[in-house]
Please model this.
Amino acid sequence: MSTPADFRHLPDLASRLLAGSVVYANDETFAEKENLITPAASVFSTDTFGHKGKIYDGWETRRRREPGVDIAIVRLGVPGVVHGVVVDTAWFKGNYPPEVSVEATSVEGYPSTDELLAAEWATLVPRSPVAGDSENPFTVADPHRWTHVRLTIYPDGGVARFRVHGVAVPDPRVLTGTVDLAALENGGTVIECSNMFYSSPANLLLPGRARIMGEGWENSRRRVPGNEHLVIALGARGSIRRLELDTSYFVGNAPGAAWMTGIDAAAADLTDTEAWVPVLDRTPLQPDTRHVFPSLTAAPLTHVRLDVHPDGGLARVRVHGEIDAVTAEQQTAAFAGLLPSVHTRAAVSPTW
Model:
């Protein structure tokens, strides 16, 4: 184990605050894997017991009676270069793993669990001893960009938190100067929704990240043929560059797949099914994952329709693009016309 190092001032790339997710654990009999990336420190209470025993604020596997190890795989919320990890065994005193290792892999897109289990993994931290009820920091010297990390514990036990500190390395293909055309604060609004049994689809357009499942859109379980959908009127006519479909916190109830189409209401009626063009082909979605996709069209659009198959919930939807130049001029003029007289003492610049 390394001595405490300054890598811990770097962002935790695995944190739930960055939409990180624990996508797999081979066992979580006593405590859930999702606790590993909770941003706050682990807490302990002597009164919390369930039907399986003491409830820990961490990840805890059963007592292993056969050879082997236990693993948890974390999808980094932001891929990047890892400078160090912390395997925090807080409160685990007689049930912590005596040794751990950390591996990493880089996979394009949004791989399934089976694809991750079959991936090639590189060692970031070799098998090393850890102490109970301790932070256990390890420095990492590997210079590569990783998308997923794997925590292996030997042979079993409990880990309270798993921190992956490093420097974000974004995919330059999504670094485009755009605005979220669908954002509620930018004028976007949901004008049609097939099912809003549990929560409003308007939540999808709220600013920031969802903090719980209830802050997204969730429909009821569909028992008849078909699928659920919603239609968003964009805040401005524009060309879409990339989409974000975020299923954070939707673990067992995320859609199996989704697709998006769009239309320019300035040139066609919304009821004209032939006028809707593909924005995203039907694509599988992963649970508890922030997906980013390029748009299939650069044509100016005023509305988009999102279909989810067959049902399920989303935390946020982002439609990043550029406002049409003519539309921007029209909006500036309309904006100026809406200002009260007390405001018009200052000129309104179309270019700020």
